[in-house]
């Protein structure tokens, strides 16, 4: 039996069709990322799965309990941790009081261990907490009763980078212990560090459910390079180059070149940007003939992945505009 089983789930708010006929399962011990841009329907799905909203059609079960079966859900929730988006705590209570109450209802076997790791303040009223501290308290609350399944809605929002990293390491360690984790995010680079599989939601519909490795293989790298001199419009092409853009930087060329270690008689710098889905070694070979002012190679942002695989048109249809106001022609074939 799957830990989460969602079938044909649909949720309308009046005229708003927030979620439409989505299907997915999450298996025991998986870390499952639920990805989508703002308004895609992530929170609606999560709240419906937990019985906080009634589905318009379809069904969801968590730990075998149907989300609309109240007694079954009460029982299941003993073994579920939940971190909502913007957790709404009693603002007049201190963090300690909130954890005491939660502990008395659901248990607190792991409270001390989690407090040492996430260090939320405990003796101040929650109304005085920063959003990051609220989130840290929420994470402690979600895990402190040692649940089998943890469902979190954008858990790292508000956390600083160090705390995000600690959270990611913690989730990975939980997976090793067999805990099933489901969490939503709108940042692909965040879920890739911890998830086994992801589902991508857009406009209330599921566009794909797949292993994170296969998604990343297909989504490729985003390359942004500033190169001394001119770059031909067809310098980077072929079916592994997507959305090629080229911008001449004339105004600041001298300043940029002066900051490099190499001698150059170039009087312009060309910025190129594209997404690359081929073998990274071939990319390095292609780049080797240029002198770089700087080079960034990073994961393609989620929006880029959406546009290329699931959306209309290609980023290459955009026209890059140079700082001197000239439009540089877009090259590349733009094949997806
Ligand atoms: N209570 C509500 N009444 C009417 N429409 C709603 C309500 N809650 C959400 N919606 C709409 O449903 C759609 C999905 O919203 P939802 O909050 O589930 O998306 P989300 O993916 O969680 O977004 P975000 O990342 O911004 O939190 C949006 O169009 C939103 O405006």
From TrEMBL:
MF (Gene Ontology): ATP binding; ATP hydrolysis activity
CDD domains found in the cross-reference section: ABC_DR_subfamily_A
Protein name: ABC transporter ATP-binding protein
Segments of this protein annotated with the region Disordered: 311-336
Family: Belongs to the ABC transporter superfamily.
Domain ABC transporter: 4-228
Keyword line: ATP-binding, Nucleotide-binding, Transport
Organism whose genome encodes this protein: Halapricum hydrolyticum
Highest taxon of source: Archaea
């Amino acid at each position: 039996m799957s830990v989460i089983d969602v079938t044909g789930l649909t949720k309308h708010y009046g005229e708003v069709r927030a979620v439409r006929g989505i299907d997915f399962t999450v298996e025991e011990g998986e870390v499952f990322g639920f990805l989508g841009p703002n308004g895609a329907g992530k929170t609606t799905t999560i709240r419906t799965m937990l019985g906080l909203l009634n589905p318009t059609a379809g069904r969801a079960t968590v730990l075998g309990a149907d989300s609309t079966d109240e007694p079954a859900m009460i029982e299941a929730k003993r073994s579920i941790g939940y971190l909502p988006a913007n957790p709404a705590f009693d603002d007049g209570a201190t963090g300690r009081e909130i954890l005491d109450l939660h502990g008395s209802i659901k248990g607190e076997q792991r409270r001390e261990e989690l407090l040492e790791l996430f260090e939320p303040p405990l003796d101040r009223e929650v109304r005085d907490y920063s959003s990051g501290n609220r989130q840290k308290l929420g994470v402690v609350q979600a895990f402190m009763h040692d649940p089998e399944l943890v469902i979190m809605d954008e858990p790292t929002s508000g956390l600083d980078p160090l705390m995000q990293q600690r959270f990611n390491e913690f989730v990975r360690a939980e997976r090793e212990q067999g805990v099933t984790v489901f969490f939503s995010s709108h940042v692909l680079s965040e879920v890739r560090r911890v998830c086994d599989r992801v589902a991508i939601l857009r406009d209330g519909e599921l566009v794909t459910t797949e292993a994170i490795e296969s998604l990343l293989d297909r989504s490729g790298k985003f390359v942004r390079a500033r190169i001394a001199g001119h770059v031909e419009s067809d310098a980077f092409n072929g079916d592994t180059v997507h959305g090629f853009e080229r911008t001449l930087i004339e105004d600041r060329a001298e300043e940029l070149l002066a900051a490099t270690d190499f001698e150059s008689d170039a009087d312009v710098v060309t910025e190129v940007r594209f997404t690359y889905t081929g073998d990274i070694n071939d990319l390095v070979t292609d780049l080797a003939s240029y002198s770089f002012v700087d080079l960034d190679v990073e994961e393609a942002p989620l929006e880029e992945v959406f546009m290329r695989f699931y959306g209309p048109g290609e980023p290459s249809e955009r026209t890059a505009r140079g700082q001197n106001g000239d439009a540089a022609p877009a090259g590349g074939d733009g094949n997806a």
